[in-house]
Sequence to fold (497 residues):
Amino acid sequence: IVENYTSVENGIKKNKRKTIKNLGYLEKYDDGKPDFIKRMKEQLKSGELKIDGIEPNEFRARAKLFSNAYYDTTQDDYRYLNPKNIGYVFLENIYNKLGIYDLLREIKSDSKIEYDLNGLTKLLVFGRILEPASKKKTFENKDKYLFPVTTSNDLNDIYKALDVLEENSKKIQNRMNTKIKKSSIGRKTDLTYYDVTNYYFETMYGDDDFYQLDENNEIVKDKEGNPIIVKKGFRKKGVSKENRNEPIVQMGLFIDNNGIPVAHKLFPGNTQDKTTFEDVLKNDVDEMKLGKIVIVADNGMNTKENKYLITENKNGYIVAKSVKRSWKSQREFALDENGYTYIRNASGEVVFKYKSRINKIKLVSKEIDEKTKKPLTKTIEEKEIIYWSKKHYDKEVYQNKKFIEYLESCKEHPDKLKDKEKKSQKFIKTVDVDPKTGEVIHPEKVIEFLDEKLNKYKETMGYYSIVTSEKDEDDKEIINKYHGLSRIEDSFRMLKN
Fold:
């Protein structure tokens, strides 16, 4: 309950408000009927809702408004219920069916662990789903469940458990995968989506690398003179998805076509997205023996090495290809209207178009041929799909309209470039020599606008490209499958919420 008032500061009137009374959570006043907030306001105005407290008789008359409180006549005081969560029983059933309980019981019996490993893991899992919080807060909430989830009463046990879970992460994932494959849901891996995200830490300092040392405690170096790293630091400065400056860790995640995770792995924060793929695929996914999978990923995974690895194991891929970086080779094909399939709206306007072609490409392996001492290579046929969307075109035009107008105006007034110099750099270059006379210019430099780059920037709006090993599949079907990648982005949003 707040009171609005006006104050005068330095001759200026300002509207302010102060809190009169904090009534607590709205839920306790909700009787399930509509407009309960409106009714509360009316009760406040009529004097029924007391600011400094509610009279016992009045409380009884309005008892239905309070879902978790009652008046104890024997104590002449209010009593608040302490509700317990019972929904976790549903989650516990899934936890057990995934085989986690049995596996952690085996791990505990084979070690000297004395604390409640399974109970603490359940507590972490249930807390993450029902009431996300820090590990400490999650432990403090352990009594909120209808029946005890864990027998552990020491906060330190939860940090010990985290180490055990990290050490056995691969075993846990394999056990869950086995259970899912045998379940009524099963694994649907005709399409398997892969993407990378990262998590930041509330610290300025990253983790140091550990180097190999000789008998004199000197750092050992390899043939190229680089220090040999025994163990990489985990929290490192890198390219944050949330534009944070703090140290981060990378996470690569595979999910199947049902949206169920297949495998995940963590990497140091300075690991490039494209280099995470091989590790997760070779060391985790391939071992699960899922049969042929078709991997869908964004253009960050579109490398010759990754595609070699996928096809060498008889798997397939659908990956994005950057139009802006490939426009030189794609432009003539993309702008030629022949061969397009058009989708029109009710007014006959083209809102979507697509077409494809087959290209022969050379793939390169990271493995070295023992005879030639060169990387292994192979040539395959790949389908390249170009498509254009009016919806995305209009969006890009709207987003870039002011910037393009600004860039055009800079041709007449180059001094304006100082305002947005960084973004404008790829459209201009500075020269010390006058291109017309060949004369050395001093002390000022000449700014030359790269019109061909600006034209390309405009031409590519609304265009997208996908390449795939599945050259016999319908183009539209491939596009739809690629757009399913948004599922994993949704998964990341939920995981990080």
User: Anything to note?
Assistant: The first helix runs from residue 36 to 46. The longest strand covers residues 350-368. Confidence is low (pLDDT under 50) at residues 56-68.
